[in-house]
Amino acid sequence: MTIAIVGGTGPQGSGIGLRLALAGETVILGSRDGERAASEAAKLTSEHAPLGVITGANNRDAVASADTVILAVPYKGHEELVGGLADVIGHKLVVSCVNPLSFDKQGPVGTQIPDLSAAEEAARLLPEANVTGAFHHLSAVNLHKVETDLSHEDVLVCGNDESGKAEVMRLASLVTGGRGIDVGALRLARHLEPFTAVLISVNKKYRTNSSVALTGVPETGEK
Amino acid sequence: MTIAIVGGTGPQGSGIGLRLALAGETVILGSRDGERAASEAAKLTSEHAPLGVITGANNRDAVASADTVILAVPYKGHEELVGGLADVIGHKLVVSCVNPLSFDKQGPVGTQIPDLSAAEEAARLLPEANVTGAFHHLSAVNLHKVETDLSHEDVLVCGNDESGKAEVMRLASLVTGGRGIDVGALRLARHLEPFTAVLISVNKKYRTNSSVALTGVPETGEK
């Protein structure tokens, strides 16, 4: 199984890709600029010598070679970028970790968008794909600090297809060493995505890199 | 300091009131029906013999006697109910734990409302009051099981006034035995409130009563 990360040279995308490769997966970082993606992949490989393989390519080539596509792009330009990949994404499994956020003097806040969430927007743009949402709340800083244990952070996974979510929960366990939690329908992405604004605000106030854990859920995340 | 709970006979309101009274606070449960509130207060008192005092009254009388007002009402009817109390609420500290949620065959989801959150709606209806948001994510079931330790559950507090939030964080510590976390501006209530839909969905899938904890924040919640 090969995983393409669209926006894979950004801090969140490259951090998720690095963690997946460390766990043995085959990862292709995608970027608008394929050479930049290849360069980032080479840097991560030389620094971390992962068990798996990280390479880089332009977004279209990365997606074409992959089984699963992680969308880790800024929300700005999301519609054009994702819509333009619809033909190569086809029926693939898609994981959106896009957070539509705005910032002003009051701090961060979720952006009101027409589809209510970036994941629902992706589902509209990619009508054949199996779209899920996950990985919104992991700190890019901590993803790159590979010695940092993330196993106490929960990855909240939403989607409308059980088998797709099961695969995303497997990837979540590889990324954090902890668990994914199936929170329900894809539309709940509209509540997962902007919760990141709460975390960023907390990070500033408490000078930390916060994330989310749910209490009361069995340790293994088994249903 | 006396705390009025508007909607204090509902499961969430009475649970918060019970926990506050157990911690020694003076609580007045408010209800549209003052006799029903008095009856609920007498029942909680006889069952739990709290250190503090719980009484009941109609919402207006409860608010008039209180320093702090907790809004624990269903979103349906929120505007009329809260707007109708504006004169007795005046400049008081207000804590909204209202969750505007909808339910259909896909499960729970946040309701899109004109003010974007119930807390912001309350701030519009109560222009003189010091409005905060908190207590959205505590399970009413667990609040009433007084032997259940809630200290690992974080109470996320938002508001635009630091002294108001400090008092709400004090109340949060009394309710859970754990900590409140100042997440930032009042408008972040628009992300705290519908996150409850995620928790309710998880509760159904995993047959539990989930809540939220943030990782990475210093244990005491000190800034």
TrEMBL record, chains A, B:
Coiled-coil regions listed in the entry: none
A UniProt-annotated Pfam family: F420_oxidored
Cellular component, GO annotation: plasma membrane
Biological processes annotated in GO: copper ion import; NADPH regeneration
MF (Gene Ontology): coenzyme F420 binding; cupric reductase (NADH) activity; ferric-chelate reductase (NADPH) activity; NADP binding; oxidoreductase activity, acting on NAD(P)H
Keyword Nucleotide-binding part of the UniProt annotation: no
Keyword annotations from UniProtKB, A to Z: Oxidoreductase
Occurrences of domain Pyrroline-5-carboxylate reductase catalytic N-terminal (ranges): 2-100
NCBIfam families, alphabetized: npdG
Protein name in UniProt: Pyrroline-5-carboxylate reductase catalytic N-terminal domain-containing protein
Species annotation: Leucobacter aridicollis
